[in-house]
Amino acid sequence: RGGMALSESVAGATTFERRVLRSAGEHHYLRVRLELPDGGARPNVAQFKQLVVSALRELHGEAGAALPVDVLTYEEKTLSALLRVVSSGLVKLWSALTLLGFYQNRRCAFRVLQTSPFLLALAGNSRELVLD
């Protein structure tokens, strides 16, 4: 969240100054993957979004279900998505996804792979690069 910056004092001695980034932005972004047992239907994007909303409702009630969450990208093949949530709702969303255990009476689990207040930070994952 913050960093150390070097600054020179009048006497010439090096001092450290702590700079803290107070508010990175109004949104947080999460890269998530839904893990389902083999077989059975995979949710489409609308069903995936409904699953996220129902997870929020289950843990946090109607106020949680009203939390603005956007599915920016979704890959049905890998069940991976990029979600955007208001920063104040990050903990609610993360906890609701973590505690969700079922999709259509089948065991499931959400894995939060990455999170950042900066969308660009999640744009590429060096672990997924294919080098020639």
UniProtKB/TrEMBL annotation:
The keyword tRNA processing applies. SUPFAM superfamilies: Rnp2-like (SSF160350). Pfam families: RNase_P_Rpp14 (PF01900). InterPro entries: Pop5/Rpp14/Rnp2-like, Rnp2-like_sf. Keywords: tRNA processing. One of its GO terms (biological process) is tRNA 5'-leader removal. One of its GO terms (molecular function) is ribonuclease P RNA binding. GO terms for cellular component: multimeric ribonuclease P complex; nucleolus. Belongs to the eukaryotic/archaeal RNase P protein component 2 family. PANTHER family: RIBONUCLEASE P PROTEIN SUBUNIT P14 (PTHR15441:SF1). This is RPP14 protein. It comes from Eolophus roseicapilla. The lineage of its organism: Eukaryota, Metazoa, Chordata, Craniata, Vertebrata. The gene is Rpp14.
